[in-house]
Amino acid sequence: MTVPESSTGSPVRIDGPWTHRDVAANGARFHIAELGDGPLVLLLHGFPQFWWTWRHQLTALADAGFRAVAMDLRGVGGSDRTPRGYDPANLALDITGVVRSLGEPDAALVGHDLGGYLAWTAAVMRPKLVRRLVVSSMPHPRRWRSAMLSDFAQTRAGSYVWGFQRPWLPERQLVADDAALVGRLIRDWSGPGASGPDEEAVGVYRRAMTIPSTAHCSIEPYRWMVRSMARPDGLQFNRRMKRPVRVPTLHLHGSLDPAMRTRSAAGSGEYVEAPYRWRLFDGLGHFPHEEDPVAFSAELVNWLKDPEPDR
Fold this sequence. Notes:
By secondary structure, the chain is an alpha/beta fold. The chain has helices at 55-63, 88-101, 114-125, 141-150, 152-157, 159-163, 169-189, 199-209, 214-227, 232-240, 262-265, 288-291, 293-305; strands at residues 19-25, 28-35, 40-44, 67-71, 107-112, 130-136, 249-254, 276-281.
């Protein structure tokens, strides 16, 4: 498979106009790629990807006058792979801890997929550190829970999450044949006419997944999300997420997303007591920021620059 070059030989520290470094937060070390100066925009990737999924937005945001930082979540890419700590509350504290470690008073959080789930969580748990919230391809955690439990179509679309509950086998499947399953998931979840992620990008994600322990750490958050549903910690988290989001929120979604149905994501605005904007990208799938990076970046930058985003 063809992958972009890295001067360090690392499969995740890929060369570009950005700068790579590590920061300490919440008892772990996190790899970041950063570019530009200005108000901080922190980009949070989803599954089965890592920071590089935001390569187009890093340059677009920097060109627009922002300090754009894409971090690798705990257990993924160049960040620490700890034996525990993959519940959403702790992962959200990783994110807000990185904001503090970067010396910023707050950040606009931009999250896709699992990164979106954690962005919702961080905005509820540490509202003073979140200036604005942008979520792509992921409903509010309470909407996600409800859809997975009561909507048969979403339960079927999210069958991979249920499959992750088995011990060890999902990890083996993810890394088999040079992580061929990662490529299939990305292709299957993309819109039918999508121009990306292309084969080169898919090769990058496959290579990153084969780093030891990455597959296990990538799956652990989904195991917690399902296994905790009836446990005290999960019920407490669900109650905690009743608190409204009180920062301006932009919610982005691909109309043909096969992994997270539009019906599941729509309606998340009921948990936002602030300006909320819903934007549906016609013809795009689960990865709108890669399938049409120009349109996605324009929507993102225009909204972040709007001093009074509408409801």
